[in-house]
Design brief:
Blueprint (H helix, E strand, L loop, with lengths): L12 H12 L25 E11 L10 H18 L3 E11 L6 H18 L2 E9 L3 E11 L14 E5 L4 H10 L11 H8 L5 H9 L5 E5 L3 H12 L1 E6 L7 H9 L14 E6 L4 H11 L3 E9 L7 E4 L17
Parallel strand pairs: 2-3, 7-10
Antiparallel strand pairs: 1-4, 2-4, 5-8, 5-9, 6-8, 7-9
Length: 340
């Protein structure tokens, strides 16, 4: 079993330490009395009256990001998807570890310099510290385990929603999936669905940390989840955990013009609802919190859209219903991204 703190690898010993010292050790900062990179394990101070939130995600080349993605963007996304999980629980980021598997193609100074810069930029923005990890040889994959703090007993969960509450989404839906469609289909300016903002969303998602922490601090959210596998699939996790049903208003969903045009071309009205790679937050709030949520949206400069309502669940009924402008039920063949 490999400890979290020292970087260990399948590379030659001298190259291993050079790699760590040049590209990753500068990302590690610890407070007085703590131990970071360089020992058999990290020793970290724990704030009083707080609990630790731990999240992990693995990204595989060619499955979670296109093979031509830049090292900077790979690093950014690997950390961002973990930060998005912390955001969904209202956690304040604290530290993370990195397990990096490199093929000979990536094991060079140019690739590692770009990769470490992507990590550095987002970790500084999120104020999260690298405390160690593992390096080895093989097909390119990146695993990040991130930790954050929440006040004891206060973390946002999927299981706290109540019936007849409002369902909200931050930002816009489907732009990460649209970005992937842009890359895979090599869309150019003038093509239906072409959108540079969507490509940026795919490569450098922005974890909604300020939103998650504000929802927790202001006691506005009953339940929350980050939208990573598609809105319909991830909302379903809240509904199952809370034993509820929901009705969603399709016309209330925040969809970009480029996405709507692409969905129309593909004859797929659900594109954007089940594509994944959004890394926005979906949360449930009581109706009397609407005014405070609007104020929060204004203060963050972030769109927060009410898109539906939770309902009591019965075994005979549907867990999740999507309705068009006329109130008709829209068929849903696929809820989200399938990992297997």
């Amino acid at each position: 079993m490999i400890g979290l703190t020292p970087f260990r690898s399948g590379f030659a010993m001298s190259h291993e330490f050079d790699l760590i010292n040049q590209y990753f050790a500068p990302l590690s900062q610890v407070d007085s009395g703590e131990v970071g990179i360089g020992d058999d394990g990290a020793i970290l101070n724990c704030p009083a009256n707080h609990q630790l939130v731990v999240v992990t995600d693995t990204l595989i080349a060619g499955r979670h990001f296109p093979l031509n993605t830049t090292p900077y963007d790979i690093a950014w996304k690997a950390l961002a998807v973990n930060l998005s999980d912390l955001a969904a629980m209202g956690a304040k980021p604290a530290f993370y570890s990195l397990a990096l598997t490199l093929s000979p193609q990536e094991n060079n100074q140019a690739w590692l310099k770009s990769f470490s810069l992507g990590l550095k930029t987002l970790s500084e923005q999120a104020q999260i510290r690298l405390i160690g990890g593992d390096t080895t040889q093989g097909p390119l994959s990146i695993t990040v385990t991130a930790q954050g703090w929440v006040p004891s007993g206060k973390g946002l969960l999927r299981s706290g929603a109540l019936a007849y509450a409002d369902i909200y989404i931050s930002g816009a839906l489907g732009n990460g999936g649209l970005g992937l469609a842009n890359v895979l289909n090599q869309l150019m300016p003038g093509d239906v669905g072409y959108c540079t903002d969507a490509i940026a969303k795919l490569n450098r998602p922005e974890p909604r940390l300020s939103l998650g922490q504000a929802l927790l601090a202001q006691n506005l959210a009953l339940a929350a989840i980050d939208i990573s596998d598609g809105f319909l699939a991830d909302l379903s996790h809240i509904l199952k955990a809370s034993n509820l049903a929901a009705s969603i208003d399709y016309d209330a969903l925040p969809l970009s013009e480029a996405l709507i045009a692409w969905a129309k071309k593909q004859s797929d009205s659900l594109f954007g609802l089940n594509t994944g790679d959004d890394y926005e937050l979906c949360f449930v709030a009581l109706p009397d919190s609407a005014s405070a949520i609007k104020q929060l949206a204004d203060s963050l400069g972030l769109r927060l859209s009410r898109v539906g309502q939770t309902l009591p669940y019965t075994a005979e009924g549907e867990r999740l219903v999507l309705r068009d402008s006329a109130g008709n039920v829209m068929p849903m063949k696929r809820l989200g991204y399938q990992h297997f």
